[in-house]
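Dear Dr. L.,

I hope this message finds you well. Following up on our conversation about the binding site, I have prepared a predicted three-dimensional model of the protein together with iron/sulfur cluster. For your records, I am including the exact sequence and ligand specification that went into the calculation, followed by the structure tokens. Please feel free to forward this to your student if that is useful.
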Amino acid sequence: MPLSSAAFAPPLQAGAQQTLLGLGRAELADRLAALGEKPFRARQLWQWIYHHGVGDFAQMSSLPQAARALLAEHFHLARPTVSAHQISADGTQKWLLRLSDGNEIESVFIPEVDRGTLCISSQVGCTLSCRFCHTGTQRLVRNLSAAEIVGQVLNAKDALGDWPASRPDRSVTNVVLMGMGEPLYNYDNVARAVRVLLDDGGLKLSRRRVTLSTSGVVPLIRRAGEELGVSLAISLHATTDELRDRIMPINKKYPLAELLQACREYPGVHNARRITFEYVMLKGVNDGDEDARRLVELIADIPAKVNLIPFNPWPNAPYERSDNVTIERFAQIVRDAGYPSPVRTPRGEDILAACGQLKSASERPRRAAAPVAP
Ligand code: SAH
Ligand code: SF4
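The resulting structure of the complex is given below.
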């Protein structure tokens, strides 16, 4: 049956179409039902949006013309607007994306030989202020909606020609919530978005290939494990509460012992489902042999991998990157204890796309709009 009766439509003003992105299947069906449509239309629509990546109802050829027109009258599938797109010498791509309220966020695509990882943001800025992180210096913060989180994936796939979603040579094989923001401080929207990413009839990413990175919001780690079952990365960065309190203020609320207990209890972790610990290498701060030894003691009973991230500098940052020799010594101690400990090669440094370098201009008025000095 075609979508017909506008009498069932939700009370929307002309020109005020709502997004359908980020809704779950049931919510999408509800929206269509409100327009007098049957559930199978919602399934067709889902496939168009997330399997074929079509962002324009007019192109949905299996839907009757009238249905396409009605949908376009009430809804849209717009991605965030690309304000800037940069490609690094190493192939990393970064998009500065403008949201409908004018705020800006960034997403980064990192191609590697065996995978392509899209790093997406969960908030504009971040309420936490880890001392080594550029995002943490940005004052303006708001949560992203599920549509804005999913929209980053759709934007990247559009740009990379990565449709249909099931293509065997797809570019985006992994998604990491490691961009701007603390995903667990925006739990509901992140959870909705993740469910869309995992849906088998759409973007079809496997749980193992979606990684949520957190600075350690302990109560929500368990919930994320139970409800979403995605891979977990913990931004550890220090091995004593004294240092972690100083460089990651969230530690005062959820200290190391509680954080590590939440990791031990993370669902699936004992089926060799490894947790990734991220550890930024800060010269003379957390990079000594004794730090490495404490680190392996702390995680002794947790199946884990330790990603060492050489500190990525940003303007006026209070830290320096550890020397390569020091990083290697540290990595060796961790490896000798039986943990894989890759040193992350900084990617996209020339376009400020590396870990911890993301920061949008949302905290200040756009330069172009500022008054010009006489
Ligand atoms: N807020 C979440 C998600 C952001 S992930 C979290 O903190 O886990 C971004 C990763 O990059 C985190 O591990 C973060 O600690 C790390 N990071 C932040 N600033 C960095 C910098 N300047 N150099 C290297 N890594 C950094
Ligand atoms: Fe926020 Fe993560 Fe940066 Fe800390 S490291 S300020 S939690 S984005």
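In brief: Residues 126, 130, 132-133, 178, 182, 213-215, 235, 237, 278, 280, 309, 311-312, 355-356 surround S-adenosyl-L-homocysteine (ligand 1) (CB under 6 Å).

With kind regards,
A. P.
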